[in-house]
Every structure is written in C-alpha cells, then in structure tokens.
C-alpha cells in the first residue's frame, strides 16, 4: 500500500519537469497527431469564403504579448486567408499593444503576398481607448473615431477607407480577443445592434464564456478557441504553422496531466479504503 | 548594430524567462528581481502610454488647437483630476463624484446592450424546437441544451428548499454545472500549456536555434 501513499506525495517538481519535457520534445521532433476541424472553426472559414473579393473586413486586435502564443497564429491564418481571397483588411485595436501585434502579423504575412499594398489592401488604424463606447461611436461615425491611421496619417489618404462611414460597408468583423474589452463588446454592438456578422478568436480561458454566443441567433458566426482553434484554422487554409506544431506538445502535456490525475485519484481512493478499514 | 541589439534583447529575455521559471523550484532572488522588473516596467510603460496615446491626442491637442469647439473636454479632465484626489487622504471623498459619474454613465449606456445580448438573445437561442431537425445528434444536442439550461436555472433558485422533484431537478443542474466547470478547467489548462509552448519556442528557436521559430 506504500506505493499508493507515494502516489499522493509525488514532488510537484517532478511533474513540472515531465511537463517541460513533454512540451519541449514534440517541439523539436514533430509527432504529427491528427487534428480535426470543429464546426465552430469551420463556420469562421466558410464565412470569409462567402464574402465577395474586394470587400473590406474589420479585424480587431484586442490582445497583448501575454497571450501572443495563442492568438497570434489565428491572426496570421486569418490574414493569409483574407489576402488569398482578395479581401481587404481594416485593423483596429481595443488593447494598446494590439497595434504592435497587428504590425508584426502584417509584416510576416505581407512577405508572402508581395502584391498587398498598405492603404489599399490593408490599414492599421491603431488603438482607441473606450471599449464598447468606441465601437458604438464607430457605428455612428467611423471617421471621427479613427481620423488617422496608427502612423498618424489622415485616413482620407488611403483608398481602402473610401466610403467607410460606419459598419455598412464592412463585410464582417473579427475580434481576436484576450479579455475585456474584446469579442463580447463587438458582438453586443456590431451584431446585436447593427446585425453585421461577427466572428472571433479568443484565448482558451475565455472560450467557454464566449461559446454560448455561437447559437441559433448567430450572435457569433464561429469561434476559434485557443491554440487548438488556431491549429484547426491552419489546417483549413492548408498552411501548418506554429499552432499546428504546438498542438503536438499540447497533446503530450495533456496526456501527462491526465496520467497524474489518474495516479492521484487511484492513490486517494486506495488510501481512503485503507483508512476506512483501519477505522472499522 | 541591429543584430547585436536583437541578440542582447534575446539574452535578456532568456535571463528573465529562467528567473521566472526558477520559482517552480522555490522562491529565490532571481525570481524576485524578474518580478520587480516586470511590475516596474509595466507601470512605467502604462504611465507613458496613457500620456502619449490618450491624454495628448484626446485632450491636450484638441483643447489647445481649437478651444471653442473642444472646451467640453475639460469636464472629463476635471473628473479625472477628482479621481486623483484619492491619493490625498484629507480630500479623498471628492473622488466619489467622479466614480459616481463613471458608474452611472456605464450603467445607463450598457444596461440595454447587456439586456439584449446576454438575456434576450440568449433566451431566444434556447427557445427552440429540438425535433425540427432530422439529424439525431442535433436533436440530442438541443435536448441537452434545453435540459441543461432549465435545470441549471432551477439550481440557482434558492427561495424554495431543494427537496423532492425540485431537489432532483436542481441536482441534475449541478451535474451540468460540474461539466461546464470541467470544460472551463480543461480550457484553462490548454491556455497555460500554450503559454509554456510560446516560451519554449522562444528558448529553443530564437535563443538556441534548435527549432525554426
């Protein structure tokens, strides 16, 4: 029975070490676990596929470097798909560091699409404080909310902004969100008030709180939840990247955690039975 | 020069990463240093960011360039100053006026939105005919959605003692809640592992060059 007691007293540092190895090894040597696309992710992909080429879509970068490993792969995959479909991207940020996240993503993606031109196919309008109030104001007067792009140049100089006064000429809104303000606020204003399709990508922590919005009412068209959502999207656009690679490590880490949960439970129930017998 | 600065940046990042991870072994001075650097830099960064990206473009420039059309901005500026009065104990009560305006405005502006999105639309999404679909999986899924919603709500009804049929319904609600907590916990684990993957990708890729970042 001593072995069961040992199960309950495993040094936590051993668990940390095993998790570290479980994550590091698959990053070095790819294991290639199978990945299936879920309906929520497929819906986002299909939504973009159905939009006419040349249409402007709005992507909001509502996250910062602390959640970059989860959300940046989504941004890259969505931008790649949008540029492949010849959709034009208007980028905004409700989080200050979202501006840099957007610039970084555009720099990386634009290297693959040499014909993409800033101001014509893409624009970064930068950060605006205010959350829901800002979105509401965009719906009423887009130009006074964002009179200039992130570099301080008046938006009238850019062809991509021609005719944009509110959300009327925006095909859809996608919020890549790590919290508040973020996806929920976009749903409330853009879909629930103005009826425009909204989709999003969130951190895994936030995903369960946003999933109820993917419903019959189509408050959210679809949702990319955490690294898995990003990996599924990479699979859909057929461009495996960081998220796909990360899912191998993610799966191994989960297996280790499940193993330790089982060990802990076996140890708990075995020693409890022993204690009950002693009491009797 | 740019490459050298890049390398220095990576080495600082590596040092800070190891300093933070060292806490997993036990608390130590390196962890404390990294923690204090993080807090200090964050506070400094936000202070400067607020001045240059919020106060200057939204207040100082409009007021100084066109006072006649923008003098109304002095009201939120004044409320902002009132908020800072919290730092002076003898007049900290003044900040309550600013807080009252913020809370009142937020409640007024957002009440309708939250009612529409979180109550009406969510309720409408649950009021569905589960047998409308010909797909068995979808029918079962929608039945689970309806039962889960109703029993979950019953659990939170505390004005009647949870016993008999009512208690059984509430107990079923607890199971649904436990499943949702479990799913949330699973997602949280995934998020934390994702952050570890990000750090290891940096260490193994950007620093050691073993993997392609």
Order of strands, main sheet of chain A, comes to 3-2-1-4-5-6
Query: What structural class do helix, strand and pairing data of chain A support?
Result: alpha/beta
Overall average pLDDT of chain B: 93
What count of helical segments of chain A does DSSP give?
Answer: 11
The main sheet of chain B comes to: none
Number of domain units of chain A: 2
Q: How many β-strand stretches of chain B?
A: 0
Q: If you average the pLDDT of chain A, what whole number results?
A: 94
Portion in strands of chain B = under 5%
Order of H and E elements of chain A? HHHEHEHEHHEHEHEHH
Give the radius of gyration of chain B: 27 Å
What is the fold named in CATH at topology level of the largest domain in chain A? Rossmann fold
Helix residue percentage of chain A: 40-55%
Shape of chain A: elongated
Gyration radius of chain A (Cα, Å) is 23 Å
Q: Notable features of this structure?
A:
heterodimer; A: 280 residues; alpha/beta; Rossmann fold; 2 domains; six-stranded parallel β-sheet; 50% helix; 12% strand; B: 213 residues; mainly alpha; 79% helix; 0% strand; extended
Write the layout of secondary structure elements.
The complex is a heterodimer of chains A (280) and B (213).
Chain A: H1 2-8, H2 12-28, H3 39-50, E1 56-62, H4 68-84, E2 88-93, H5 98-110, E3 122-127, H6 132-140, H7 142-145, E4 170-177, H8 183-191, E5 198-202, H9 207-210, E6 223-225, H10 226-236, H11 242-279
Parallel strand pairs in A: 1-2, 1-4, 2-3, 4-5, 5-6
Helix pairs in contact in A: 1-11, 2-11, 4-5, 4-10, 6-8, 10-11
Chain B: H1 2-21, H2 29-65, H3 67-70, H4 74-84, H5 95-126, H6 136-155, H7 164-207
Helix pairs in contact in B: 1-2, 1-7, 4-5, 6-7
Describe what is shown at a glance.
Chain A is α/β, with parallel strands linked by helices and 280 residues long. Chain A has 11 helices and 6 strands.
Describe this structure in words.
The complex is a heterodimer of chains A (about 280) and B (about 210). Chain A is α/β, with parallel strands linked by helices. Chain A has two domains: about 1-30 and about 245-280; about 40-240, Rossmann fold (3-Layer(aba) Sandwich), CATH 3.40.50. Helix content of chain A is about 50%, strand content about 10%. Chain B is mostly helical. Chain B has a domain at about 130-215. Chain B has helices spanning about 1-20, 30-65, 65-70, 75-85, 95-125, 135-155, 165-205. In chain B, helix 1 crosses helix 7 and helix 6 (about 135-155) crosses helix 7 (about 165-205). At the A-B interface, helix 2, helix 4, helix 6, helix 8 and helix 10 of A face helix 2, helix 5 and helix 7 of B.
């Amino acid at each position: 029975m001593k072995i069961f007691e040992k199960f309950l007293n495993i040094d936590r540092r051993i668990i940390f070490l095993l998790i570290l190895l479980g994550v590091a090894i698959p990053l070095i040597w790819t294991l290639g676990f199978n990945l299936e696309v879920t309906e929520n992710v497929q819906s986002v992909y299909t939504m973009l596929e159905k939009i006419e080429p040349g249409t402007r879509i709005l992507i909001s970068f509502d996250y910062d470097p602390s959640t970059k490993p989860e959300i940046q792969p989504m941004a890259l995959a969505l931008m790649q798909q949008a540029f492949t479909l010849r959709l034009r991207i208007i980028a905004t940020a409700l989080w200050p560091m979202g501006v840099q996240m957007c610039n970084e993503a555009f720099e990386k993606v634009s290297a693959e699409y040499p014909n993409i031109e800033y101001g014509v196919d893409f624009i970064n309008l930068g950060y605006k404080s205010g959350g829901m109030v800002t979105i509401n104001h965009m719906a009423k007067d887009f130009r006074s909310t964002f009179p200039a792009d992130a570099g301080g140049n008046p938006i009238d100089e850019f062809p991509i902004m021609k005719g944009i006064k509110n959300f009327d000429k925006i095909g859809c809104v996608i919020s890549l969100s790590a919290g508040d303000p973020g996806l929920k606020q976009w749903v409330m204003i853009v879909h629930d008030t103005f009826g425009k399709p909204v989709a999003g990508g969130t951190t895994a922590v936030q995903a369960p709180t946003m999933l109820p919005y993917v419903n019959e009412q189509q408050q959210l068209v679809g949702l990319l939840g955490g690294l898995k959502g990003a990996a599924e999207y990479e699979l859909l656009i057929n461009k495996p990247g960081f998220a796909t690679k990360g899912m191998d490590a993610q799966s191994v880490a989960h297996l280790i955690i499940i193993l330790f949960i089982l060990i802990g439970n076996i140890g708990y129930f075995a020693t409890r039975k022993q204690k009950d017998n002693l009491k009797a | 020069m740019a490459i050298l600065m890049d390398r220095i940046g990576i080495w600082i990042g590596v040092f800070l990463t190891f300093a933070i991870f060292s806490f997993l072994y036990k608390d130590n001075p390196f962890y404390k240093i990294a923690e204090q650097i993080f807090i200090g830099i964050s506070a400094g960064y936000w202070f400067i960011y607020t001045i240059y990206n919020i106060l200057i473009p939204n207040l100082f420039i409009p007021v100084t360039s066109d006072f006649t059309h923008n003098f109304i901005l002095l009201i939120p500026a004044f409320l902002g100053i009132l908020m800072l009065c919290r730092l002076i104990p003898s007049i900290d009560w003044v900040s309550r006026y600013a807080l009252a305006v913020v809370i009142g405005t937020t409640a007024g502006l957002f009440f309708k939105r939250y009612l529409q999105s979180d109550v009406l639309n969510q309720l409408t999404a649950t009021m569905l005919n589960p047998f409308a679909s010909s797909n068995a999986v979808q029918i079962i899924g929608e039945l689970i959605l309806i039962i889960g919603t109703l029993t979950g709500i019953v659990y939170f009804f505390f004005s009647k003692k949870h016993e008999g049929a009512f208690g059984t319904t509430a107990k079923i609600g607890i199971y649904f809640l436990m499943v949702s907590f479990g799913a949330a916990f699973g997602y949280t684990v995934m998020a934390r592992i994702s952050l570890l993957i990000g750090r290891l990708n940096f260490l193994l890729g950007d620093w050691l060059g073993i993997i392609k970042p």
